[in-house]
Design goal:
Residues 291-329 are annotated as: Disordered. Pfam families: Prenyltransf. The protein is an alpha/beta fold. 53% of the residues lie in helices and 10% in strands. The protein contains 12 helices and 7 strands. A 7-stranded mixed sheet has the order 3-4-2-1-5-6-7. It starts with 10 loop residues before the first helix and ends with a helix.
């Protein structure tokens, strides 16, 4: 949707009504309980539009608010956003200062108004290595957590500052500190419980914008599950609209309902081929995680899929003939 449309009188009211309507539509089918978002492309958007980088980050924050509103209208219980990576501390001091000032400004607005949090009952949780933050920023973030702690309808995890490797390191340290207890068992479930998201539903859907096809050290442990669908979008984050997220949610719900697995694993070659065609019709500019797996296994080639299907049919035919002979005998 073009930016100039947003200048029309009543646009925000129409947009809000549309989110509520489509949210009710989405809730008629399966809904992802936990959605992760890598909000990438703010700086590139600023350079492409010849504006200051800080303006790109500010527009990205507004995009986040609009997308989160749609997610909560659709019934999503947890949203985890990648707001600031530990690696971002390697950027220029000017940009780091602006990002910290932006965080203070926006979270101060949430503390003072908190309309989104109040309307949807959202609890804000800051996850990451908080020791790396300046004291003034840390204080405001703690105030936000305290103000919203009693909201129970949904949760917003703000990863600030965060990397998945640091999260795993934190989990291991926590496990070691508790390992002195008797009959303490260390396994995958133990590590999962000690992650920042250990008390929350598993991640069902991960979305990354800007046409970059990597996870950039975000929720690496949580996203390895075959039940987590990974979607890569070409749009830069400030260009990403609620309608783009809506298409992804419809796509996810459709595949979850019909195939029982939103990521495409465990499907027969025929189902996988039909599903790929349906995905191209629904979201032609979106690539999903299972397509990369197809390329590795060779299932993306229609000739190979057809030959595999033919082999399966021949096997079934021979088995049927054997059963028929037994019955005749």
């Amino acid at each position: 949707m073009s930016d100039w449309v947003s200048t029309f009188p009543g646009y925000k009211q129409v947009l809000s009504s549309g989110k509520k309507f489509f949210g009710r539509v989405i809730q008629t089918g399966p809904v992802p309980q936990h959605v992760g978002i890598i909000m990438d492309g703010n700086r590139r958007y600023a350079r492409n539009h010849k504006i200051e980088i800080k303006e790109g980050h500010s527009m990205g924050f507004n995009t986040m608010a609009n997308v989160l509103e749609l997610l909560y209208e659709c019934g999503v219980k947890v949203a985890t956003v990648y707001a600031f990576s530990i690696e971002n501390f390697n950027r220029t001091s000017y940009e780091i200062k602006w990002l910290m000032d932006l965080a203070k400004s926006k979270f101060t607005q949430i503390n003072q108004n908190g309309l989104l949090c109040e309307e949807y009952g959202v609890r804000i949780k800051i996850i990451g290595n908080l020791k790396l933050l300046p004291p003034d920023v840390l204080q405001i973030l703690h105030e936000t957590e305290e103000i919203t702690k009693n909201n129970t309808r949904a949760t917003l995890n703000v990863c600030f500052p965060y990397t998945s490797r640091d999260e795993m390191t934190h989990a291991v340290k926590s496990i070691v500190s508790e390992s002195t207890k008797e009959r303490f068992i260390i396994n995958e479930d133990t590590l999962m419980r000690h992650l920042y998201t250990g008390d929350q539903p598993p991640v069902d859907l991960l979305v990354r914008t800007s046409g970059t096809y990597r996870l950039s050290d975000f929720l690496l442990w949580q996203c390895v599950s075959p039940d987590c669908a990974v979607v890569f979008v070409e749009n830069l984050w400030p260009e990403f609209k609620p309608w783009d997220m809506l298409k992804i949610l419809i796509n996810w719900s459709f595949n979850k309902y019909w195939y029982g697995n939103s990521s495409g694993y465990g499907l027969t070659p025929r189902e996988l081929m039909e599903r790929t065609h349906s995905l191209e019709l629904i979201t032609p500019t979106t690539r999903v995680g299972f397509e990369r797996r197809n390329e590795v296994e060779g299932d993306s080639d229609e000739t190979d899929v057809s030959s595999q299907m033919g082999t399966e049919e021949e096997t079934m035919t021979s088995e049927d003939e054997t059963d028929a002979k037994v019955k005749i005998a």
